[in-house]
Amino acid sequence: MTSPTPLTIPTRVAETERLVLRRFTTSDAAFALRLLNEPSFIENIADRGVRTLEQAARYLLEGPIASYQRHEHGLYLVELKPSLQPIGMCGVLKRDGFLDVDLGYAFLPEFWSQGFAFESASAVLNLVRSVLRAPRIIAFVSKGNAASIRVLRKLGFSYAGETHLEPASATVSLFQLELQET
User: What domains are there in the chain, each with its CATH number?
Assistant: First the structure.
């Protein structure tokens, strides 16, 4: 019998009153498959082209899990306490072409409007402040995503203009939050 690899050991990174945030593992592929194919995810974030469990496991390996290895951070699975039912993801990404890390989150629709995005993002911001010690964090939002804009404003982010994540992509709104005194 082989010993567990980091890809199969869930690692908690933060807890709140109602939530546990932990690193994704390949065993989370079924949840990732569902979340990535929610119409709201495709409309507001992107269609990742993930349609099978195998593609979902590859997405996790090449996305969040690779980010943990490369940057020591990434998107985390958000679970409800005490059942550990997966409800979404929240974390930070390091995108090519942008100096600052970027806050990202997505939740299954049945868990919207209950404060989970704000609660998990607050925990992630605490990690960014204490562990990454980043001076600033940014967030990208589709122009029509009023709910996410409300969450960002409640977290203290301010509008910083419009940008493109890739040259041929649609324009998105850019928000930023200064984390350290200058």
Answer: 12-134 (3.40.630.30)
